[in-house]
Design goal:
Mean pLDDT: 82
Number of helices: 16
Shape: elongated
Helix content: 40-55%
Structural class: alpha/beta
Strand content: 5-15%
Low-confidence stretches: 154-159, 232-249, 252-259
Strand order of the largest sheet: 9-8-7-10-11-12
Order of helices and strands: HHEEEHHHHHHEHHHHEEEHEEHHHEEE
Distance between the termini: 48 Å
Number of domains: 2
Length: 393
């Protein structure tokens, strides 16, 4: 009981801290077990296991070492490592584990550089238990993985990794369960960021870089303004107050579109089987929500599709962001964008433009009579033969 109280006290202190308070949603997500069934610590991306003997006997730098291990496991969850990097793990399990640990540990140092709450665990002989190398600061896990492979495992400071990564447990998740886990983790991060706003203006400092994990990667107002200006029937209001800089070098003064508004857009989300791998579904959903957050859209049609269409309803920018239909994806079958073309035609839906959110793993792209913008999440650069393509990655 004494160990449990000590563990809980450290956990609460971390959740209330300026350094790690943004992780409070992640810390509360899933289940936590104190057990000697694991040698040190472990997560499957949802639940966490901690060996109390390791935390409070093997580790020699007290509560700071134990706190470090807790945050390390939470970062594996926040980064969705167990589901996002399955393919890397299949290529080389050891190097994938190392890459994820390097990524985690440098973020802990960035958040707590003076070691006020955390310190890399050390053994009785004073040797650190963990991996860290300043070389990998601001690198992605994939880039670290590639560098470690090329250089035979790297030679950063610290010993080896101290925890276990339950890839097998994560592998047992179905496609639907894996996607639900990603959505839950994303929401847990958002909750942590939102609750931090109560601390003061601007909220807590995000030295961990959590917001970048859930932030859309595309400047959608800019991209959609260009696209809709060129192709859409409904134009945004223009103004001569700020000349369009794209034409100034030709001594041509053109008006600039003003505002981030649109009348009617159809968001058509690929829900086929391939979207449940490589984080594709989470990426396109984040971008879709990002458009609604950044723009004022009067009418949003949400359509999930695979080999056929599952119509989800009509929303505005305000109602779309919290709609349960956004989180609960319907699909899992084949991939045929032509079903969207036919559905729009049969139901007389005529939006200003259609945003097709997909991984681009399709054979037939369809014959479109409305402006279509493809937002493609794929490590390989894929360009649709019709409409305009934006590669999210």
């Amino acid at each position: 009981m004494k160990v449990e109280r000590k563990f809980k006290a450290i956990k609460i202190a971390l959740m209330r801290s300026e350094q790690f308070g943004l992780l409070r949603g992640i810390a509360m997500h899933g289940k936590t077990f104190l057990t000697t069934d694991v040698p040190t610590a472990m997560t499957d991306g949802r639940d966490c296991w901690f060996n109390p003997d390791f935390l409070f006997k093997t580790i020699q730098n007290g509560d700071k070492g134990a706190a470090y291990v807790m945050v390390h496991e939470w970062l594996h969850k926040a980064g969705m490592h167990m589901v996002t990097y399955r393919n890397l793990h299949k290529r080389n399990p050891m190097v994938t584990n190392m890459a994820a640990d390097y990524w985690n540990n440098d973020r802990i140092l960035l958040a707590d550089p003076e070691h006020l709450l955390t310190e890399m665990p050390v053994t009785a002989d004073g040797k650190p238990i963990g991996l860290h190398d300043l070389k990998y600061r601001d690198w992605t896990i994939k880039r670290i993985f590639d560098d470690l492979l090329e250089n035979g495992g790297g030679g950063g400071g610290g010993g080896g990794g101290f925890d276990e990564h339950d890839w097998e447990g994560a592998e047992e998740l179905s496609k639907e369960e894996a996607e639900k886990l990603k959505q839950d983790v994303t929401e847990a991060i958002r909750q942590g960021i939102h609750s931090s706003r109560k601390v003061g203006a601007g909220g807590l400092r995000d030295a961990l870089g959590l917001e970048e994990l859930i932030t859309p990667k595309v400047d959608w107002p800019h991209e959609l303004r260009i696209f809709m200006t060129a192709t859409c029937r409904k134009k945004e209001r223009s103004t001569w107050r700020r000349p369009n800089r794209r034409y100034l070098h030709q001594d041509i003064v053109m008006p600039t579109l003003e505002g981030n508004s649109a009348k009617e857009i159809a968001f058509c989300r690929d829900a086929s089987g391939s979207m449940f791998f490589d984080n594709a579904l989470t990426k396109v959903t984040s971008e879709m929500v990002g458009i609604a957050q950044m723009m004022d859209i009067e009418k949003i049609h949400l359509i999930d599709w695979d080999g056929s269409v599952e119509y989800r309803g009509v929303f505005s920018s305000d109602t779309f962001k919290s709609a349960p239909e956004v989180k609960n994806v319907l699909g899992g079958g084949g991939t045929d964008p032509r079903c969207v073309v036919e559905y729009l035609k049969d139901n007389n839906i005529k939006p200003d433009c259609v945003v097709m959110l997909t991984d681009g793993e399709v054979n037939e792209w369809g014959n479109w009579t409305v402006p279509v913008l493809w937002a493609i999440a794929n490590r390989n650069k894929i360009t649709a033969p019709v409409g305009k393509t934006i590669n999210i990655d």
